[in-house]
Amino acid sequence: MKVFVYLILSVTCLPFFAVGAFETYSTARELQSNARVVGTVTGNVYSTTNNDGVVSGAYHPAVEFTDLSGAKARFTDRIGSLPADYELGMSVEVIFEPDKPQNARIYSWKRFWLAPTIFVLVGVLPFLIAALIMRRLNF
Predict the structure, then answer these.
(1) What span, in angstroms and rounded, lies between the C-alpha atoms of 75 and 54?
(2) Containing domain of residue 102, as a range?
(3) pTM higher than 0.70, yes or no?
(4) Given its phi and psi angles, is residue 89 left (phi above 0), alpha (psi -120 to 50 degrees) or beta?
């Protein structure tokens, strides 16, 4: 029975752990290879989406920064929120590939690490909980 429980947990949880581990690795590599500078929020662009008649909207921060060559660059972050996460004039950390400043992103723990963390936890926590329960029940 114990083997059966762990087998079921493996089949259901291992894909989550694998995706989380891959995303963690990809994020770490991206952060190591990209440049970081401080930028300024110059606005919040409101955009809407229509999914099967359900309209929703979010504010996407517009940011200006100086790239490594000294040129001014601007971008609108692809992650939006409602209400807006960033205020006009706020300083933010910007991460970008040195040869592609137009692909810049705002750096924050939530934007880079939240999804990988959730996937890893969904992949690991059921194993830990099952092990604790089985140990308490002397299973």
Answers:
(1) 27
(2) 2-136
(3) yes
(4) left
